[in-house]
């Protein structure tokens, strides 16, 4: 299985000639697989969403007064429901004034797909930084060791914080001796270290506070990191997956995914992985990457299916866009077939067929 | 450019290379797939865009009509030809797509120095300007840039000129532990202690040779790396020649 | 000026009110948070967005506002006529970058990105006139790809005046002829930015502005189609809560 492609790899540089008008690299187009979103549900910034009062503005929306004649519009950015609490009073006051002046409407502030949950209307962009939600499992990289806290890059718009009090220490009471704090902190987590953690809270300014007060969280050992758009990570019961091929996969909700060899049962703290293990880790890493570039949602089922489809190919081949498209397409088709088979409207699946949320529903009647 | 990595990650990359299974599953001496797009720019004499993984390089070749302008722009190739019958090849590298920091500037300056030395002996009827724009970076800038520049120069210069002097290509060999690798990505580059870049023409002659890195090399290791580099550069020449035969 | 218009047609065969062909591709640079490749006639620009990310303490103002920075780069091979290499820190490029920053300041919802920084890099691969408006369009698209919140779609166009009538979307030939010209950037009905390219008579201002804002609406519509087509194909998902 490995011999012929090996020689080819070493003896020549594979050069893919791209035509002038050719679209390369080609990525998966869900429309080709029969998934159709209503065109109305896709919006760009400035598009009007609704004039109805019954909807609460969520992410990606903004409220503006309808421009009648030469009236100047006043803009108030829509925030998430939880973060809106501080501003709710201000907005209510504005509302009262606007009631007297004229109508207002909700418009999109990002380019993406409309989504309604109960009365909350938001627009989900295809790519964005991670916003954060309490209880999410994330993978982060330590940027800085400060006094009694670590500053973590969690793919958000602000650095996340991990307090010394939020870490499960191995029994020692490090907090007593304050002079040794900083040295001791670096022994737990140093700059550059990868750590799996949970979001403890989201501050008023949007920054995240993390904690690792659970045995499964903490510093990540040997392995490699893959960065994908956070929107592609499907929320599941667990984000730590021990795959049958001997690879541990951590799918952080913030888009940072970590693949490493599953440590064995031996007493050695960090046994060195075997070449076979490394090959499997490389394969899983390649699968995560190829699913991500082809806009396929990432969860244990999709990664395992990609692994099965790609099992026969040499791992190095999985970095080629043409091969990535082939595997992603097969996985997408399998996922769609499974979804249709389940026939559950709300639960299960990732809502592909229920994506057509807006067109026939409440909003189209509003205009 | 050094990346912020954890010690276990660095160790994993190091050990993986020792086991001859790189992070992306490649063998130690294998190149990534290259994608080549020709004639993208309509204002240049010839242009080529090459991507090796996520390293994306756009090269434009222009022949300068105004002889007066060249005297001011000899720049790093100032030491060569003062005679008017043949002109030098002048190289410019721009990495501003990666940012405006000192690291990107250093990357650009080093690449410019390397590529200028590669084309130092090339003689063209009119002065030629090779402009290299980096659009994305994941390691191995020099090899990708030399392939793109070669492809563009082959389109721009007359065939008679090319048969006389062969266009050289770069091959960069990194040393990680006891293993050599070629076409390192950004992570591997930040784990490598030393690298050797050789410029080789299609006749197998060494045109340029440069070592870089914080680690020191034993003499035997260095000669080994140079030999590997020359072998790999010849392989690149073969592949590029096959492609050119198809296209032209 | 007879060499600009001949029998009602311009040098490239367009009518005075015709904009050149626009085509946008989003997400071309996976390493960036957002990217867009814009083809505008013979012009070709690449804009990339990095962020919103944590701003460095040194860059923050006392009010801790969002830091929005634009880097504009036009390599020597980008234009047909000018072949000279500029040194680093070219003034014209810095000026263009500042103008784009100003225009963006009014459209990006900066209050949502306090203490964050958004860095935008523009590479001009090929230029055939109307550089500033092409750059603004490319940046607008890249910001949409990155999911940065904006009041609306910022679209720009460069218009000129010839034979008592406005010319939409000047190419390099027309721009170098020294026609009175105006670059206008609009969000919906509102004009966010207007800068004069070459000497303009005050009487020419009104008709040019009116023409430009109509043209901006067309540009926004056209580019919006490309954005929506990209989103439809990619099907942005949300993980079910």
From TrEMBL, chain A:
GO CC, alphabetical: cytoplasmic exosome (RNase complex); nuclear exosome (RNase complex)
Region annotation Disordered: where it falls in the sequence: 67-102
Pfam families: KH_6, S1_RRP4
S1 motif domain segment(s): 135-213
The keyword Nucleus is annotated on this UniProt entry: yes
The entry's keywords: Exosome, Nucleus, RNA-binding, rRNA processing
InterPro entries per record: Exosome_RNA_bind1/RRP40/RRP4, KH_dom_type_1, KH_dom_type_1_sf, NA-bd_OB-fold, S1_domain, S1_RRP4
GO molecular function: RNA binding
Biased composition (Acidic residues): 86-102
Protein's name in the database: S1 motif domain-containing protein
TrEMBL record, chain B:
Gene3D superfamilies recorded: GHMP Kinase, N-terminal domain
Coiled-coil region(s): none
Cellular compartment(s): Cytoplasm; Nucleus, Nucleolus
MF annotations from Gene Ontology: mRNA 3'-UTR AU-rich region binding
Domain Exoribonuclease phosphorolytic: 31-156, 168-231
UniProt similarity note: Belongs to the RNase PH family.
Protein name: Ribosomal RNA-processing protein 42
Taxonomic classification: Eukaryota, Metazoa, Spiralia, Lophotrochozoa, Platyhelminthes
Automatic annotation (TrEMBL), chain C:
InterPro entries hit by this protein: ExoRNase_PH_dom1, ExoRNase_PH_dom2, ExoRNase_PH_dom2_sf, PNPase/RNase_PH_dom_sf, Ribosomal_Su5_D2-typ_SF, RNase_PH
UniProt xrefs under PANTHER family: EXOSOME COMPLEX COMPONENT, EXOSOME COMPLEX COMPONENT RRP41
Family: Belongs to the RNase PH family.
This protein's GO CC annotations: cytoplasmic exosome (RNase complex); nuclear exosome (RNase complex); nucleolus
Domain Exoribonuclease phosphorolytic: start-end pairs: 19-148, 155-214
Subunit structure, interactors included: Component of the RNA exosome complex.
A Pfam family hit: RNase_PH
Entry keyword set: Cytoplasm, Exosome
Compartments, record wording: Cytoplasm; Nucleus, Nucleolus
Protein name listed in UniProt: Putative exosome complex component RRP41
GO MF: RNA binding
GO BP annotations, alphabetical order: nuclear mRNA surveillance; poly(A)-dependent snoRNA 3'-end processing; rRNA catabolic process; U4 snRNA 3'-end processing
Record function comment: Non-catalytic component of the RNA exosome complex which has 3'->5' exoribonuclease activity and participates in a multitude of cellular RNA processing and degradation events.
Organism: Macrostomum lignano
């Amino acid at each position: 299985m490995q011999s012929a492609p090996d020689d080819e790899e070493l003896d020549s540089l594979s050069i893919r000639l791209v035509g002038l008008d050719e679209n390369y690299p080609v990525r998966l187009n869900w429309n080709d697989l029969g998934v159709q979103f209503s065109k109305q549900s896709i919006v760009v910034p400035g598009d009007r969403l609704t004039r109805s009062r019954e909807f609460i503005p969520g992410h990606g929306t903004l409220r503006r007064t309808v421009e009648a004649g030469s009236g100047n519009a006043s803009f108030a950015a829509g925030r998430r429901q939880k973060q809106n609490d501080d501003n709710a009073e201000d907005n209510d006051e504005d509302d009262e004034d606007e009631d007297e002046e004229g109508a207002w409407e909700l418009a999109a502030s990002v380019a993406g797909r409309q989504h309604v949950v109960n009365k909350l209307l938001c627009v989900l962009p295809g790519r964005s930084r991670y916003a954060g939600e309490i209880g999410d499992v994330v993978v982060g990289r330590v940027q800085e060791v400060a006094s009694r806290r670590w500053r973590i890059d969690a793919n958000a718009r602000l650095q996340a914080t991990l307090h010394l009090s939020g870490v499960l220490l191995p029994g020692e009471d490090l907090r007593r001796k304050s002079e040794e704090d900083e040295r001791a902190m670096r022994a737990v987590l140093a700059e550059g270290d990868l750590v799996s953690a949970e979001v403890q809270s989201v501050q008023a300014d949007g920054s995240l506070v993390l904690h690792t007060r659970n045995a499964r969280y903490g510093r990540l050992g040997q392995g490699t990191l893959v960065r994908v758009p956070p929107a592609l990570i499907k929320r599941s019961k667990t984000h730590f997956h021990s795959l049958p091929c001997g690879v541990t996969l951590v799918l952080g909700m913030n888009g940072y995914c970590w693949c490493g060899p599953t440590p064995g049962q031996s007493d050695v703290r960090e046994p060195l992985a075997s070449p076979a293990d490394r090959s499997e880790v490389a394969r899983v890493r390649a699968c995560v990457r190829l699913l991500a570039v082809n806009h396929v949602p990432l969860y244990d089922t999709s990664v395992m299916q990609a692994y099965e489809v790609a099992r026969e190919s040499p791992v190095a081949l999985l970095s080629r866009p043409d091969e990535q498209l082939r595997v992603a397409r097969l996985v997408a088709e399998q996922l769609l077939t499974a979804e249709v088979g389940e026939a559950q409207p709300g639960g299960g699946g990732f809502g592909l067929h229920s994506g057509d949320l807006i067109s026939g529903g409440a909003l189209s009647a509003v205009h | 450019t050094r990346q912020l990595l954890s010690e276990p990650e660095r160790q994993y990359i190091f050990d993986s290379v020792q086991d001859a299974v790189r992070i992306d599953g490649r063998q130690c001496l294998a190149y990534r797939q290259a994608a080549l797009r020709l004639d993208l720019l309509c204002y240049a004499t010839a242009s080529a865009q090459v991507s090796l993984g996520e390293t994306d390089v756009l090269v434009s070749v222009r022949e300068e009509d105004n002889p007066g302008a060249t005297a001011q722009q000899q720049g790093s190739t100032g030491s060569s030809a003062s005679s008017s019958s043949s002109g030098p090849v002048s190289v410019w590298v721009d990495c501003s797509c990666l940012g405006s920091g000192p690291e990107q500037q250093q990357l650009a300056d080093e690449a410019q120095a390397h590529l200028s030395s590669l084309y130092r002996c090339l003689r063209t009827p009119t002065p030629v300007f090779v402009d290299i724009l980096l659009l994305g970076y994941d390691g191995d800038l020099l090899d990708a840039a030399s392939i793109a520049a070669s492809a563009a120069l082959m389109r721009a210069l007359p065939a008679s000129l090319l048969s006389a002097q062969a266009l050289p290509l770069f091959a960069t060999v990194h040393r990680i532990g006891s293993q050599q690798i070629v076409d390192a990505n950004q992570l591997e580059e930040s784990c490598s202690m030393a690298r050797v870049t050789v410029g080789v023409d299609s006749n197998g002659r060494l045109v340029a040779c440069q070592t870089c890195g914080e680690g020191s090399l034993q003499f035997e290791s260095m000669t080994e790396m140079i030999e590997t580099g020359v072998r790999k550069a010849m392989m690149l020449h073969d592949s590029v020649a096959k492609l050119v035969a198809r296209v032209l | 000026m007879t060499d600009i218009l001949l029998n009602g047609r311009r040098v490239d065969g367009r009518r005075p009110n015709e904009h050149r062909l626009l085509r946008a591709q989003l997400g071309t640079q996976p390493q960036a948070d957002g990217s867009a490749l814009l083809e505008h006639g013979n012009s070709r620009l690449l804009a990339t967005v990095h962020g919103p990310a944590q701003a460095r303490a040194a860059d923050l103002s006392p009010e801790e506002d969002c830091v929005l920075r634009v880097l504009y780069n036009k390599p020597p091979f980008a234009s047909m006529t000018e072949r000279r290499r500029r040194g680093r820190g070219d003034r014209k490029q810095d000026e263009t970058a500042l103008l784009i920053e100003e225009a963006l300041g009014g459209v990006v919802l900066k209050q949502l990105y306090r203490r964050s920084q958004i860095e935008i890099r523009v590479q001009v691969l090929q230029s055939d006139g109307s550089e500033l408006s092409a750059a603004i369009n490319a940046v607008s698209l890249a910001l949409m790809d990155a999911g940065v919140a904006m009041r609306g779609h910022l679209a720009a166009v460069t218009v000129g005046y010839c034979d008592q009538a406005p010319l939409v979307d000047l190419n390099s030939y027309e721009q170098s002829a020294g026609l009175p010209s105006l670059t206008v950037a609009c969000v919906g009905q509102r004009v966010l930015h207007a800068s004069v390219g070459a000497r303009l008579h005050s009487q020419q201002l009104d008709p040019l502005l009116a023409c430009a804002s109509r043209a901006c609406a067309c540009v926004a519509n056209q580019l919006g189609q490309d954005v929506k087509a990209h989103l439809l194909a990619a099907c942005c998902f949300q993980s079910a809560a």
